[in-house]
Fold this protein.
Amino acid sequence: MQSELDIKKEMCEIGKRVYSRGMVAANDGNFSVKLNDGEFLCTPTGVSKGFMTPEYICKVDAKGNVIEANEGFKPSSEIKMHMRVYKEREDVRSVVHAHPMYATTFAVSGMALTQPIMPEAVIALGTVPLARYGTPSTEEIPDAIAEYLPYYDAVLLENHGALTYGDSLLGAYHKMESLEFYARLLYQAMQVGGPQVLDEEQVKRLYGMRKQYGLTGRHPADMDKTEK
């Protein structure tokens, strides 16, 4: 089991990855890790996620109130969004919010990612819905994402960015990478005549492979089973 210090170090490492891959600019982005039902670690507001060290990381309760924070550091102002995910999804241990270029391009264009264009994206994410616009740091964004939480592990935020979550910090970050790769491929395919999409039977077979691979989290494939 990781110590709190080890988790803080991992958060700093993920911050470097997010920043170096251009998924955030300046002080953008935020992510968090659930320690238990009443304690969460989160990145601070107003600092570059690419240059954090463990003492930057804050600890908050389930309402986003500060439990521990070093002088000069305050929890992300968007912690409400994270807490809604944890409230609705008991399986989630980490939430990542960033502004990856291609995914955010679709988000600011008001477009969800719904076209099945490659097996890996279909298996890992299925589709990625677009949550309606909400003012950052208010309950508007948590309310907007709520309807998608039961069946998706990645959501685009209209005119804002992207949100991913999973059973570990690395898992949540990898979903963000997968989302951005999917968005970039779709964008580039649209520039050369449009993508060749997989048909319904091909998608159905890929959905069925999730269990074979032992993938965790929620997925549109679960929605299909529920509706039958």
Q: What stands out?
A: The two ends are 39 Å apart (CA to CA). Helices lie at 4-20, 79-88, 101-108, 119-124, 140-145, 169-191, 200-213, 220-227. The mean pLDDT is 95.
